[in-house]
Amino acid sequence: MSKPIAGFSKLSKSKKIEWIVNTYFSDAHDARDILEQYWNSNEKLQQLHDEFIENTITNYYLPLGVAPNFLINGKLYTIPMAIEESSVVAAASKAAKFWLKRGGFKTQVISTTKIGQVHFIYNGDFEKLQVYFNHVKSKLIEDTEDISKNMKKRGGGILDIELRNKTQDIPNYYQLHASFETLNAMGANFINSCLEQFAKTFKTEALSFHLFSEEEKQMDVVMSILSNYVPDCLVRAEVSCKVEDLNEGHISGEAFAKKFVRAVRIAEVEPFRAVTHNKGVMNGIDAVVLATGNDFRAIEAGVHAYASRKGRYSSLTYAKVEDGIFKFWIEIPLALGTVGGLTGLHPLVKLALELLHNPSAKELMQIVAVAGLAQNFAALRSLTTTGIQQGHMKMHLMNILNQFEANDKEKEQLTDYFKDKTVTHSAVTKAIKQLRLKG
Asked: 376 burial class (0-12, 13-18, 19+ CB within 10 angstroms)?
């Protein structure tokens, strides 16, 4: 059994690795080789990666693929996607090609407001607190001038601050609920810095407010932090066409539209289905968010909270047929940035943004929403026609073959063999064993 180690963070990278491989692995030499083979041969680039986080021992690579032919508001895009799951990039590309011939995707940014809160405890009369807040509000904003001046010059900054009474949930619990515009930055550091100054000013000024008793002056700030729930940072993406233009091979446009709309409706009312339905949306969204250096965990948390905003977890996408027109759309909160963070540091992030024509934050919101809508369309199209496994397992075939360390000739033969057959793990196992017996 391993023992705790003191001062691990102060060890050099090589010493950290030496301790890890000797403590946890039966073959320390092999473990070290695996870690080192993912280092970048460019020492300067490797140092950059090492300094992104703490206790770095190697790089963890994900494939970066591209999905071309996305027509968004009349402009063509090739979308970068960083993801490990097979069939996601192929599905997005297929959906892009499908809608390229039918007018493409239409998008609109509805709002870009972000939220931050100061959570505090106040033991006293709410009416006096309200009077105090009205008195101190301008001072709260004034004291953040040094923090916000550059953001204000660019047209952003603090939009408003509200006092919210939350005592029905927790005794004596209140909030300063602030809204922000951060333009092309995701804005987390800016928002958090403003909130911490709000808290400092709010507590300090309370000490001399004439209406407060001594107890009321002693406010307890619990925390000051931005929220990743951004229901007012919304973007909409949609596709539409005549129902008859949905005709595809063995199924009529009318039959396809009927099944598709029903499938979306099921995801609206059935949470068990909605979770998987929305996971498909996030396959597309997370892949682009990650490729562009944004925080996919924050996006995931905010999106799923939004999916539950009506009291029950529900679909993020909607579909209908009206007057012979099929329409499929998404309305989703996305707080994204194209400056700050990794966007100016990670070479592949910079490359991904240039691939997207160096978009503004609003443009990136629209691109990401389209990726989610396209991915969901591709999944529902498969589910309601051929079934999800046919396409997914075809893409998964290569992963199975790699598990068996198939050589190039075996891959070629088995890929050809499964062109007209159902791909399952057991079927591939049987086929590769038979092929090797013949050889």
From this structure: buried
